[in-house]
Structure formats: C-alpha cells, structure tokens
Write a structure and sequence with these properties.
Strands 1, 2, 3, 4, 5, 6, 7, 8 and 9 form a nine-stranded antiparallel beta sheet that branches. About 20% of the residues lie in helices and about 30% in strands. The relative contact order is 0.18. The longest helix has 14 residues, at about 145-160. It has one domain (about 20-45, about 60-250): Pnp Oxidase, Chain A. The chain is of the alpha+beta class and about 250 residues long. The radius of gyration is 22 Å and the shape is globular. This is Flavin-nucleotide-binding protein. It holds the Pfam family Pyridox_ox_2.
C-alpha cells in the first residue's frame, strides 16, 4: 500500500497528538481530499520589490497567507485555478521554466477538513467534534502543458458534482477563457490524515454524580453537508440533467 509514512518524529507530516487517529496511506488521504469541497491553501507571498524597510515591517508580506479555494486531485497531484493575476496563483507559479532549479519551486501546504458531528459532554471543557482532516505538503508549479491544464480544469468542474460530467455538458470553453485562467499544480510530497469518530468522554466523577447527569445532556449531534433540490434559474429552458438531479439528498 502506498504511504506517506513519516521517517521520524521530526517529519513535517508526523502527527504528535492522538497518534492513534493518524493515517498516512494514500487511500485514506485521497478519500478525504475527494470528499472535501474546499481546501485552505497556505503559501508564502514573495516580498514586493523596491519597498522601504520601514514599510516592509507593516506589509501583508509579513503575515502567513491562507486562502480557501476549490480544488481537485488527479493521482497525487492537487490542482488550483483562478484568474491569471490572482496573487496566490502568481506566488505558487514559481520561476519561469528553465530559469531556476527545482529547489526554488514554491512550497505550499493544503488542508481539507470535514466536520462530521458535535460531541456534547457534561463538562464544557470536554466537548469535541468528530472529523476527517488532511494536511498535504508539496512544491507548486505552473501548469503549462495544454492537455494537463484542460484535464485539471475538467476535474475541478466535475468534482463539485460528485463526478458528474458538467465539463462536457456545457458550451465549449473559449480560448480567451483558458488564456485568462491560471492553473497551478501541487505535487504532494508528503501528507497525513487524522480521523475522529467517537462518542462523549466525561470525567468519572461527573458520570457518577447524579446531580450532574440528571441536569446536563450528553451525546453526539451528527453534521452533514447535504445537496438540496436543484432550483432552475429564470432563463433555464431544459430539464434538469441526471447528474444534477441525482445530487439531491446526497451528502459528504
């Protein structure tokens, strides 16, 4: 089984707390990535040139940058897209091809989290959540190959429809649309998944205290992201396609 198993406790993907919840195999990581609709992408914005040192201290460049984005996965590569001048995509595009070594490629961290339930306990300090989460680390690159770019964009579109082929069920994409859209790939070098699926855990003294147990509710409140009934817009003239109608009541 392919795995991102960390080589040591110093590895960036090593989960230190609640290690029993850690998963490093590709299958588990990929399942969570495929289920998640939004990724949070961490990147380092390049410092602006010709900026006075005093101004740089207050610059946005000094803050960590994390942006929520739609994304897709093909094998062990993640794809992001947006307008050609978007700051995050420019920062992650890296040096011009052939102008620098691979070591100079920008690094990115991509996280995806899905909350599956609230764990309600007798004590406010013991409340928790059930969840599935992934942290991915890798070098980013601008997608310059035309065929790879189109495959990535098709996957980005279809992912939102749980694999329904919306890319082909649309008018043909204009060249001008492709030219003003930038696609960045992040080749996953390492990753980790963390999953919790459990019930309440309270202190023994609280569980054995009738006054506490008879006063406060404890249990689990499931949380699901559910697709609703499709609603046609004012200019729609066709029946709802199957890949859209089939989404109703499906959940992540």
């Amino acid at each position: 089984m392919a795995t991102y198993e960390p080589k040591s406790s110093d590895s960036i993907n090593f989960i230190k707390r609640y290690r029993e919840r850690a998963h490093y195999d590709h299958e588990t990581v990929n399942k969570i990535l495929d289920a998640g609709l939004i990724a949070h992408v961490g990147f380092k914005a390049p410092k602006k040139k010709n900026r006075a040192e005093s101004d740089a201290e207050d610059s946005d460049d000094q803050y960590p940058n994390v942006i929520p984005m739609t994304f897709s996965r093909i094998d062990q590569t993640l794809y992001l897209h947006g307008y050609i001048s978007a700051r995050i995509l420019k920062a992650l595009s890296g040096p011009i091809k052939g102008s620098a070594s691979e070591e100079q490629a920008p690094k990115a961290t991509v996280t995806v989290s899905i909350i599956d339930g609230l764990i309600v306990t007798l004590s406010a300090m013991n409340n928790s959540s059930n969840y599935r989460s992934v942290c991915c680390f890798g070098k980013a690159r601008l997608v310059e190959d035309f065929d790879e770019k189109k495959r990535a964009l098709a996957q980005l579109v279809n992912k939102q429809f749980m694999g329904g082929n919306k890319w082909d069920d649309s008018r043909a994409v204009y060249d001008s649309e492709l030219k003003r859209t930038r696609v960045v790939a992040i080749d996953i070098e390492t990753a980790s998944a963390k999953i919790k699926s459990a019930g309440p855990v309270d202190d023994k003294e609280d569980i054995e205290d009738d006054e506490v147990v008879n006063k406060y509710w404890a249990g689990v409140v499931p949380i699901k992201t559910v697709y609703g009934k499709p609603e046609a817009c004012s200019y729609n003239r066709v029946e709802v396609p199957d890949y859209v109608s089939n989404l109703e009541n499906k959940f992540i």
